Amino acid sequence: MKKIRLLTPGPTPVPERLSLRMARPIVHHRSPEFEAVFARVREGLAWLFQTRQDVLVFAASGTGAMEASFVNFLRRGDTVIVVDGGKFGERWSKVAKAYGVAAVVLKCEWGTPVEPATVEKALRENPSARAVYVQANESSTGVYHPIQQLAQVTAKTDALLVVDAISALGAMPLPMDAWGIDVLVSACHKALGLPPGLAFLAASDKAWKQNEAADLPRFYFDVKRERDNQRKNQTAWTPAITLVEGLDESLAMYREEGLETVFERHARMARAARAGMQALGLALFSKSPSAAMTTVNAPDGVDSEKLVKHLFKQYGIKLVGGQDAVKGKIFRIAHLGYFDDFDMLVVIGAIERGLHDLGAKIELGAGLAAAQRSFAGAK
Amino acid sequence: MKKIRLLTPGPTPVPERLSLRMARPIVHHRSPEFEAVFARVREGLAWLFQTRQDVLVFAASGTGAMEASFVNFLRRGDTVIVVDGGKFGERWSKVAKAYGVAAVVLKCEWGTPVEPATVEKALRENPSARAVYVQANESSTGVYHPIQQLAQVTAKTDALLVVDAISALGAMPLPMDAWGIDVLVSACHKALGLPPGLAFLAASDKAWKQNEAADLPRFYFDVKRERDNQRKNQTAWTPAITLVEGLDESLAMYREEGLETVFERHARMARAARAGMQALGLALFSKSPSAAMTTVNAPDGVDSEKLVKHLFKQYGIKLVGGQDAVKGKIFRIAHLGYFDDFDMLVVIGAIERGLHDLGAKIELGAGLAAAQRSFAGAK
What we know:
Radius of gyration of chain A: 21 Å
Distance between the termini of chain A: 37 Å
CATH class of the largest domain in chain A: Alpha Beta
Oligomer: homodimer
Largest interface: A-B, 52 and 52 residues
Order of helices and strands of chain A: EHHEHEHEHEEEHEHEEHHHHEHEEEHH
Largest sheet of chain A: 7 strands, mixed
Strand order of the largest sheet of chain A: 2-10-9-8-5-3-4
Number of helices of chain A: 14
Number of domains of chain A: 2
Strand content of chain A: 15-25%
């Protein structure tokens, strides 16, 4: 027997309750029955985004919402500033290029967050920049970029702050209105625990104002059309009905647990995972670790790709390794979504076993003990 | 107790076998396990499309694939010809407008198919037209447009034939390569019986050639990028994993039944539904009825909206009424997907009851008897 356990930054494990809900007979989307569900989902999403704005739902992966965050708020030939600290940061430039937008790229060394002063300087040097694009959690490195401080920087300018919170929303505080985030995009298959297929986007008044002048072509991802429809609890195009039903259930679970409690659970797991890895003598890769995941340098002499493959093959534990320059050098433990303290013991225990199997000199049990102490010290 | 039964042109009922498959624990998409599923799905889709081309899978509703059929094959300022015989035909013009493409619109009276000669004339008068856009089944009217003949027309020109087979694929023959369809788009929540969230697109050599010169901006729906990835059994962006798993199961069901048998089942249900309605003295609305649905004029004195509402409220039978100019005048019975002969007895029986309840003068049982005779006479 081999139990399979995903600790990957999307998809994340789907709670049984969501699977059961989605397995119910399908309802027609142009019906009062669906509209009642969608109304509840809209309200729940606004609560989750901590915004009074509309949170729009698209049938798409997260990248669809990233594209939407360009085409709906920019004009042909506009300049934007993009923070690029990993695979997802890189994607901003690719979208910009596809749409004829000039991107000023602020490269961050992988593992390092952007400095607010760097963004401030870039905005000073590019006063016509219409927006700053950044990840909350850069999934390829586990770096949390300082969103609140970045919002303070953009607030003083005409530029929007566009945040990809695909792997962050619901795992850590990102109060959209309180912090002044202008465009917040996310997706359903991370902290929310659904299978992939829904993307979300909410925009501030400042962003909606910019939407009026935007002239990049768009159709499927037209936020204005969606807002008009979704305010009537309908979608412009056929919605991913079962995922919307599952989202209704996921948001109910969030409400039952409470937003602050969910954030604290993620923070507690992150602290324990970090403590566990450090107790094994491993160094953390991210200099600004997010609550969604823990990225770790493999010890000398251990290829992280080999470790990741071994953990899955031998123990059914699915982690992800590093990409590009850090391939073979780091491994990533995602602990966002349907996880609790004891899941951290499982993953730390598996990593101990795996490292031991591969001949690394680690003290078996040291990581687990550190995690237990971390939990005990937690509020 | 009230059993709910959907006979709507998308979503359609989800076979229990697909729901169970999709309720299984989620797998990670960047894994050999998922790649094996995706390889099988790619093969199955090519079989279903009857093509040797790649059938690309997008996490989107059908409209996403309609957009993809513009942005990947056209240049800014191009002219195209669009067949507009209903709500979905109208959508072509809207996409064209959004992307700065000039659309020569061939309006068909609702309920009437386009004449191949009309398209031929339009192509003669617009020799620079790059493509002809048409629905196979126009869901708002139940009209089947003569795809094979249209392909013969476009084959003699440089224009592509782009077919929206969202509510047609898998319910009627549309052999892409044999007929010479250049771009065939579809979705998973019609004949295939899945919940919405996957869109498909396949392109001919002629279309791929035009893709090389296309300059409309695109990112999420970039077919070239998807082809490069999907040939490696991966997708450029996170796929809708559970729907892909369900699609694997749906295609297995198709293979077990056999494509010709599925088509004959749909044709048989369509004949019986038409016979049943006519035996009740009702006239068919579509002058070119498709095998996917039967559209019917409500009898004098009966508001079709009222009938549709009554059938759902009283009997749990969900049909759809007419839109725009035919609102209140027609009702639509969709019989594509997970339906058999006996489901037709249910819906005909419910319509008889509903009409009777609303005071229409019909002979109870006449529709059912006609359907039975139709089935008995069927091969």
